[in-house]
Amino acid sequence: MYRIELIEATESLDNNPGQSWFRYVISNKLNTITGYRRGSKTDIHRFANNCVAGLNRKYPPIKMSRKLNAVRVNVNYISLITHGMHRG
Predict the structure, then answer these.
(1) Is pLDDT at 19 greater than 90 in this prediction?
(2) Taking the domains of the chain in order of start, what are their residue ranges?
(3) First to last CA, the chain
(4) Is 45 helix (H, G, I), strand (E, B) or coil?
(5) What number is the average pLDDT over the span 29-51?
(6) Is the four-CA dihedral 35, 36, 41, 42 of positive or negative sign?
(7) Coil, strand or helix: which one is 76?
(8) CB crowding 29-51: b at 16 or more within 10 Å, else e
(9) What is the mean predicted confidence (pLDDT) over 75-83?
């Protein structure tokens, strides 16, 4: 499941000293996304929350036990087929 790891102020990326920039980090157990955005900390937090919600909808967490069971069934099926092929 994705979540916001960090939101912190950073230097201006467009050399415009009058605007606030923030770095945000979103991650799950496998991936880390780092982005930079101009605006208030509230705006950046709202943006990052929307990103997290979208990522979690698009890539829901996989339960490992289900995934392992599915692989085990497929391997057994393939073993049965290949065993029958070698008989005849």
Answers:
(1) no
(2) 3-62
(3) 49
(4) helix
(5) 95
(6) negative
(7) helix
(8) eeeeeeeebeeeeeebeebbeeb
(9) 52
